[in-house]
Amino acid sequence: MKFDIKEEDMIIKPYKNEGPIYIREQKGFFQRIRRDLGWLLMLTFIAIPWIPYNGQQAVLFDVATQKFTIFGLTLLPQDFMILALLFMVAAFALFFVTNWLGRVWCGYTCPQTIWMLLFSWVEERIEGSRNQRIQLDKAPWGVTKTRKKITKHSAWLVISVLTATSFMAYFIPAKTLYADMFFFEWSGITSFWVFLFAFCTYGNAGFLREKMCTVACPYSRFQSVMFDKDTLVVTYDNERGESRGPRKRKVDPKTVGLGDCVDCNLCVEVCPAGIDIRNGLQYECINCGLCIDACDDTMTKFGYQKGLIKYASEQQMAGKHTNPFRLKLIGYGALTALLTLAMVAWLAQRTPIEASVLRDRNALYRVNYEGLVENPYTLTIINKTQQPLHYTIDLKGFDIAKLQSPALILVEPGLLKRVPVTIIADGYDVDKKVTKLEFVITAKEDPSITITTPSLFYRN
Fold it and tell me: What is the CA radius of gyration of the chain?
């Protein structure tokens, strides 16, 4: 038997076409969810630095003074344990959602996706529909093409600068940042960071686009580790759709030996990653559901049942039920809950004051001219509140000793102060060569703000 195989039939065709992706704008249920959620997240991102709290900016990450303020909670470098817990909670929450719903983070809430689709929306308003953009790029340079390109890139740059400025408002007080912007009084370092972030936004959302998701982002590479047969992902019903092919609307596909897929290619044209979901699950897929909206729209026009492309698990496509109590999903959820409880417990036991005591390294003790034993110390007091406080120092567990220290110690909010203190005692009255004691530091304005720090007293 002789087979007539052509050379082009032996070439393995890629799932994704190389070259620029021209995204077709699509309306539908999932696009409406993404649009509303995207606007909500963007407006929240812009608005948070403008929220006042106790007369100050509610959220401010002051890198220069190493002080993070979040709605009255002041975090200093000593509190970075909370950031470690927060990152771990976010990581396991992402694993939990991914195992359950696939890459919905990428499709609906990732800043890269939101800004990429925002830039695409602006591009469509200026350059026209998908086909018009393709023709515009193929056309020679002229007045119309130059005008549209300049207008588009100008709009992108304005959005990028506003995005970068909004981001910098988390690190520089918003009122100061925007006032300096309007009067062109930004410092060199502020200008550098704003234009650096603007350049990154412009490049990522305007040019790199899906390449950030498929090449630079590691999430697309290790997501398969979190998937299982019960994970809900965007799936094409191959049994129902094949064989695909064009047909007239009123033609029954069974009479012409075709499946429900009319091969309109809209599922590819609306995909931000430029893949064909009909080739099966691919790591580039961000689970955005745009192909579902496009396919459902086509199915409605042809009078077919929706759901040719849908969110479904491998088990569901095999006619089985999805197991909601699988070990991996429960494990990710349990770890997320436990780490969240640990973070809450850490915050609950956190005190708005921190103190440490350091003994004089040159001498454990000294004897003064009166024959009394002196032990010098240096107390470090950190004020974690947002108000200046006056602190008093008392001695506990060593009644026969005398404490020499300032009567009141002023510490500004978010700062630390080192205070030299001395304990004096008659060596004959002290039974042991080493005596345990405690320094009690209390805020005068609020006695509930107090801390006890242990130390030792030495005699000859």
Answer: 33
**Bond from prior residue into 160 cis (ω within 30 degrees of 0):** no
Could you tell me the pTM of the whole model?
0.83
Amino acid in the structure at residue 131: N
Write the CA distances from 207 to 22, 28, 200, 212, 220, integer angstroms.
Answer: 12, 26, 10, 10, 19
Residues 106 and 286 sit within 8 Å (Cβ to Cβ)? yes
Comparing C-alpha atoms, which of 124, 145, 113, 125 is closest to residue 42? Answer: 113
CA pair distance 410, 357, nearest whole angstrom: 17
Residue among 350, 220, 369 nearest 282 (CA) = 220
Q: How far is CA 176 from the centre of its chain?
A: 25
Q: Are 72 and 56 in contact (CB under 8 A)?
A: no
**Three-class DSSP category at 419:** strand
Average pLDDT for the chain = 90
350: CB partners within 8 A, 6+ apart:
79, 82, 384
- Please report, rounded to a whole number, the percentage of residues in the chain having pLDDT higher than 70: 96
